[in-house]
From TrEMBL:
Lineage of producing organism: Eukaryota, Metazoa, Chordata, Craniata, Vertebrata
GO cellular component: cytosol
Entry-linked SUPFAM superfamilies: S-adenosyl-L-methionine-dependent methyltransferases (SSF53335)
Enzyme Commission code(s) on record: 2.1.1.233
Function: Methylates the carboxyl group of the C-terminal leucine residue of protein phosphatase 2A catalytic subunits to form alpha-leucine ester residues.
Record's protein name: Leucine carboxyl methyltransferase 1
The encoding gene: LOC107584116
Reactions that this protein is recorded to catalyse: [phosphatase 2A protein]-C-terminal L-leucine + S-adenosyl-L-methionine = [phosphatase 2A protein]-C-terminal L-leucine methyl ester + S-adenosyl-L-homocysteine
Enzyme class: transferase
GO biological process: methylation; regulation of signal transduction
Amino acid sequence: MASKQPFTDSDTADEAVRATCDDASTCKRFATSKGYWTDLYVQYFVRQIGERKAPEINRGYYGRVRGMNLLIDAFLKKTQCDCQVVNLGAGLDTTFWRLKDENVMPKKFFEVDFPMIVARKIHHIKTKPPLSKPLIETHSTDSLRLDGHSLDSDRYCIIGADLRDLPALEEKLKKFQINPELPTLFLSECVLVYMTPEQSSKLVNWVADTFPAAMFINYEQVNMNDRFGQIMIENLLRRQCNLAGVDVCQSLDSQKERFLSAGWESVNALDMMTVYSVLPQEDVARIERLEFLDERELLQQLLQHYCICWAVKDKLSLGLSQIGF
Ligand SMILES: C[S@@+](CC[C@H](N)C(=O)[O-])C[C@H]1O[C@@H](n2cnc3c(N)ncnc32)[C@H](O)[C@@H]1O
């Protein structure tokens, strides 16, 4: 009988990174329960509303989700949905279901995460008809093709893979018929920061080299050199979660540089304080009435430590006005 592999440090480190999937989904579940935005599907992945989150955290998630959605929607509009989307480190994200409901579907929506996370997501999808039905209802010939670590249908595919292992990732995406000739949107929301700068730069280079028409939207930490950044790093380390990519999160320039040096043509980065101030202000006023915010300064600090960076290739360039910022 094969002997069991010993438990290694990297298993522990990866386990701590995988646990961040629940941080994101429980925060999104809580904020939607308070009415910050509507997500009809997160409840099927996270049943309990869970512990109360501070208003600044909810406002931070609001800015993150609204900002990412505006960029995703601008890409879909620009390509008239003749495109595909690849969500890297998707966790329990529900964007596919939102796009389906809004009838702005790319040709195919791919998600990638560690096999253990994917297995959990597939279990939720299999056992909850509101999640599984939208996957197959459009074509009578369509069906769900499932194994433990992948699920495939005509429009939606979820793949278990390690983003640091590019040959395996490429092979799996090919197996599920990714089409490099189609305009392709890559998303990474709080994901690259868990990889070393070398690993994330290889990933960003691979996308640039493989997909002639592409856009990459990355949301993660920025301005991490100060005391606030240090506390964030220490808090995560206490949970054995290492921000291995934090060196790229020093400034908006360092965030942009990883795309520029990989040959992306046009690169923009905004900190979340700026994004928050250019979101549709009527809706911002609405959410600011939901909960009393005691410490405006804390919200500002939080928003100054996250950013959205987007890079494009081959005339997919999107100006701020086209995005709605
Ligand atoms: C903070 S969570 C964010 C989840 C989702 N993007 C969201 O914003 O709701 C980070 C996700 O990235 C995944 N991840 C991190 N490193 C990864 C890697 N090397 N390969 C695959 N997935 C990875 C984790 O498992 C986790 O689900």
